[in-house]
Amino acid sequence: MPRKIIIDTDPGQDDAVAILLALASPAELEVLGIVAVAGNVGLHHNASNARKIVELAGRPDIPVYAGCARPMRRHLVTAEHVHGETGLNGPDLPEPTIPLQPQHGVDYIIDTLMAAEPGTITLCTLGPLTNIGMALVKQPAIADRIAEIVMMGGAYFEVGNITPAAEFNIYVDPEAADVVLRCGAPITMLPLDVTHQIQSTPERLEAIRNLGNRTGEAVHAMLTFSETFDLLKYGWAGAPLHDPTVIAWLLQPDLFEGRHCNVSIETASELTVGMTVADYWHVTGKVRNVTYLRNGNADGFFRLLTERLALLP
Ligand code: RIB
Ligand code: CA
Question: Which pLDDT does position 243 carry in this prediction?
């Protein structure tokens, strides 16, 4: 029986690869819907990009919703410097033909969780946590109904990427992240500690392009665009590939290693706002609210990603 998931996302080239990986795995995952959130770029582009991606995958049946256009309290911070003006620069994808769903994405999340058997739906978050935070504020009862929240976000041993202390998804909406991490639902975090080990080297990108399908072409064009900023910044053999690790966790959890511990969000200090403070050695005695993953098997990840992308058009 495939696992039912809702993907909350700010596509973003790496978000796109995560969505494609999920859609390439129908035996394990049933994508109920995709909700766009403001993050990498503005909501309008993210909602359009999400529709372009499901159509690229040959899945125009997947409903796409628009969620929140800005963080709960702070001004929106975006990342066009990484993802380009449209958020999905690189491939030349056609304008989407499927419409955006009329319902607000936050209400879709609430209604879907409240209508389903408790513990049967997993939330996969690939961007700022604004939609999930707002859903928890509007309908707190969803917290007990969520099977698991698997999020790309945070950093501790690897420090931040948008500031010295904070990872982008948490930094954009730290108040929403705080609400989510306190909600009591099972949470698994794929932080920069893991994603910085998952590097898209030229060989790995070439293997994807050599798949010979339109998906391989598009993913190669996406990642060879979005890698530019990180290759200059870090000087590594390949740029880190963040969001698809969320889906890989669901498909092959033994690719990752970490532990259950307390993770809390800094929301007060302007110097470290958005920092995910992981009590990895349990010195505080605070509730162990997160499965905090610290290591990932890059070869195994790219083997999984490449073989699944081959299954798409
Ligand atoms: O810090 C990496 C995260 O920020 C990824 O989700 C990327 O898509 C951006 O949203
Ligand atoms: Ca993202």
Answer: 98
